[in-house]
Amino acid sequence: MTLWPGGPWLGGTSLETTNHWLSPLQVPALGLHVGGPAMLASQKDFNNAVSQVKLLKEDPGNEVKLKLYALYKQATEGPCNVPKPGMLGFINKTKWDAWNALGSLSKEAARQNYVDLVSRLSASSESPSPEAPAADRKQPESDSLVVTSEDGITTIRLNRPAKKNALTTQMYRDIIAALQAASKDESAITVLTGSGDYYCSGNDLTNFTHLPAGGLEEMARSAAALLRDFVNCFIDFPKPLVAVVNGPAVGISVTILGLFDVVYATDRASFHTPFSHLGQSPEGCSSYTFPKIMGSSKAAEMLLFGKKLTAQEACAQGLVTEVFPDGTFQKEVWARLKAYSKLPPNAMRISKQIIRNREKEKLHAVNAEESSVLRERWQSDECMNAIASFLSRKVKL
Ligand SMILES: CCCCCC/C=C/C(=O)SCCNC(=O)CCNC(=O)[C@H](O)C(C)(C)COP(=O)(O)OP(=O)(O)OC[C@H]1O[C@@H](n2cnc3c(N)ncnc32)[C@H](O)[C@@H]1OP(=O)(O)O
């Protein structure tokens, strides 16, 4: 919805009664000037600003347009003096509210505030956008992650195919940075996928071999903190997040799927969470999301006994949205995502917000608990022995 559908931003309005709930003293809280006439803009400055506003390259958004409207009315007509529109005149009522909220701000101060606001808008529309597509922003520290932005989709690609896209500590950090950037860029949808035949083989087990000066205890502490930050980014990610599961998925790459909005998988994919085999315990909020998604006994079979699911089974249990034949997987999935990326981005964000907000507090609490349990597990003999077995090539999952 736009507040000025099809018309000029500063279109007129017919309004009724006054209702001042925002006093002039509260106006500075909105970043508005209430100072004396000595520092105020001239009528000419104001007229220039009115012309300049029509030349802005970018639509400043409804909130700013509303502020501009209110200041313009205050500067040209003084305090709101027209009747408040009825409930059905929603747009006019919103505009009236904005004007009326300026209370008894003087015409001169309103003029100055209008000029200041337009000058800030002009400056920011001329400088490069801070929300450039991810492809134009700082790339990850290593080649193991590739971030691109195209057709309204930011794609975060795990790119370590020789190691089945196992996640190094640097990759966790780079994914965090990529998600933070994607949450602010211009794309409508964000995708996580993998290069090569695997989606991801989970945590790189050699992460546990780089012991810091503080020893095992310090390693476990810092890994738990990183894990918690990593999962928090998925919990809080504000846009539609889609997993394009291009092959088998193991460990944390499976558990975080419960935090994605949509999961598309090739029929070659499998889903494996061998935590008990590794002397570890679930993470990625799966101890909460999996029982919710698939029921407690199916979740237990995966999370306690490490049952590996085929793509079809994962789909039947609700972890995967849809399975595609491997031969047409990429073509079908990207065509669909391109179409979805054309949907109104704000509507998608808001819908996600409504769905996620109800759960956010719980998810953060679960993440904190899972990370702290793992911190202990990583220092256990069971875990150390399992990792040593993998690294000495005795065990493959
Ligand atoms: C900040 C810390 C947060 C921690 C969060 C907690 C996360 C928990 C988990 O994710 S638990 C799951 C951990 N993952 C695994 O246990 C998988 C281990 N890998 C395997 O079992 C197998 O490699 C396989 C089944 C994934 C694939 O088998 P295969 O097709 O036979 O390939 P290779 O084994 O020959 O693998 C090729 C190459 O990649 C190396 N590699 C694969 N996965 C990992 C891994 N997870 N960690 C380290 N290295 C991995 C493998 O060693 C081979 O390397 P090489 O060619 O021999 O140098």
How is this structure best described in words?
- It is a single chain.
- 45% of the residues lie in helices and 10% in strands.
- It has 397 residues and is an alpha/beta fold.
- The chain folds into two domains: 43-123, Up-down Bundle (Acyl-CoA Binding Protein); 145-395, 2-enoyl-CoA Hydratase, Chain A, domain 1, CATH 3.90.226.10.
- The strands form two sheets. It has a six-stranded mixed sheet, with helices on both faces. Strands 5-7-8 form a three-stranded mixed sheet.
- Helix 5 runs parallel beside helix 6 (215-236).
- The longest helix has 33 residues, at 345-377.
- It is elongated.
- Bound molecules: ligand LQSD347O.
- Residues 163-164, 166, 169, 172, 201-207, 223, 226-227, 250-252, 278, 280, 283, 390, 396-397 line the site of ligand LQSD347O.
Short structural description:
Helix content is 45%, strand content 10%.
Terminal CA distance reads 52 Å
Q: What class do helices, strands and sheet pairing give? A: alpha/beta
Shape: elongated
- What summary fits the major beta sheet? 6 strands, mixed
User: Spans of 5+ residues with little confidence (pLDDT < 50)?
Assistant: 1-38, 127-135
Name the hetero compounds present.
ligand LQSD347O
Succession of helices and strands: HHHHEEHEHEEHEEHHEHEHHH
Q: Indicate the proportion of strand residues.
A: 5-15%
What is the average of the pLDDT values?
Answer: 85
Q: What's the architecture of the largest domain, going by CATH? A: Alpha-Beta Complex
Spatially, the strands of the biggest sheet line up as 1-2-3-4-6-9
**CATH homologous superfamily of the largest domain?**
2-enoyl-CoA Hydratase, Chain A, domain 1
Main location: mitochondrion
GO molecular function, one term: delta(3)-delta(2)-enoyl-CoA isomerase activity
Catalytic activity: (3E)-tetradecenoyl-CoA = (2E)-tetradecenoyl-CoA; a (3Z)-enoyl-CoA = a 4-saturated (2E)-enoyl-CoA; a (3E)-enoyl-CoA = a 4-saturated (2E)-enoyl-CoA; (3E)-nonenoyl-CoA = (2E)-nonenoyl-CoA
Organism: Bison bison bison (North American plains bison)
